[in-house]
Amino acid sequence: MVAAGFIGSVLTFAIVPFIDNPQEIIYAGLDTTDATDLDEPSTTVTAPPMTEDGATIADVVENAAQAIVGVVNVQELRGFHPSASSNGTVESGTGSGVIFKKEEEGTYIVTNQHVIEGASEIEVSLYNGEKASAELIGSDALTDIAVLRIDSEYDATPIAFGDSSKLRPGDTVLAIGNPLGLDLSRTVTQGIVSAIDRNITVTTSVGEWELDVIQTDAAINPGNSGGALINTQGEMVGINSLKIRERGVEGLGFAIPSKDFETIVNEIMETGKVNRPYMGVGLANLSEIPQFFLQQYSDDLEKGVIITNIDPGSAAADAGLQVEDIIIKIDDTEISSASDLRKYLYSKTKIGEEVTITVNRRGEEHSLPLTLTGQLENTN
């Protein structure tokens, strides 16, 4: 039996280390760089540009920067570490976050899920120098979004979400975050929107997933993950998250657009999770299966994804799907991989909707109706 994760299970992002590969797409996030090893940066002074309402870029940044926080990922110690605290924890890395709401019960911060992944404690460093312990309200690894809460007693000015759907290539944007750690907190870099509606493939614990992102040439570095990409009105239009690293290439950064993360944030605020259509199957791509095993299905079988296990009581079980069925189509869409199936489920269907699953079962095709349930309905 081939082991694989459930479609409806919680996914986790893998943080790719900064190494000199010929090309790699990497998270901008958790910084573990020692800032003392850096060359002293040079400074160029230019005349401040003006925004449409007469404010300078510096005015916009001054207001928005108050909402930018440092996020410290503290993890339980495994083995000896010279920086370990007395309670057996160690700072695993730092990222950025953005205050977006302040209510009586607390102040809320959005960041990237990979910034706080694996944390036993989360510490937030505020604009005024105060530090606060943060509670994780919820996170969604698929979209790389997490929401934190700190006590409302801390002085904080939230930032407003803008409408990323109005962005056009060439629009001015600014990235604010904490590159290389808290010593360089609230660093501002300016650039333009290089492109919109880009699809970037990232690696998750259950395979690859495509994120819809804004491309920008504003400098994004380790520690910037979770920070704000703002427009010239000071509105947050993106969450800085990724960059492409390749010899001789600069200015290829990516941010999750507000039109995508705002809905996710609201759902996390309401339920602590994101509820998506759920089948309840474990899957493996055909490339992972020995060829001699696949010969019992068809000599020319090239596309599909094999079911490796089925969650008892799930939608898949109720529909009559079986282990070792090969899913070749959902509705009228051909399926070539587990990623194809996830993408269709999460972007084309809704909870409670009936879909038709076409499978190859030992050389015979069967079309089975399946009513999708919610992921939270199948989680204890």
Automatic annotation (TrEMBL):
Name the UniProt record assigns to this protein: Trypsin-like peptidase domain-containing protein
Keywords, ordered alphabetically: Hydrolase, Protease
Pfam families: PDZ_2, Trypsin_2
InterPro entries: Chloro_Bact_Ser_Proteases (IPR051201), PDZ (IPR001478)
PANTHER family assigned to the protein according to its UniProt record, in alphabetical order: PEPTIDASE S12 (PTHR43343), PROTEASE DO-LIKE 8, CHLOROPLASTIC (PTHR43343:SF3)
Domain PDZ: 268-363
PROSITE patterns: PDZ (PS50106)
Taxonomic superkingdom: Bacteria
SMART domains, per the entry: PDZ (SM00228)
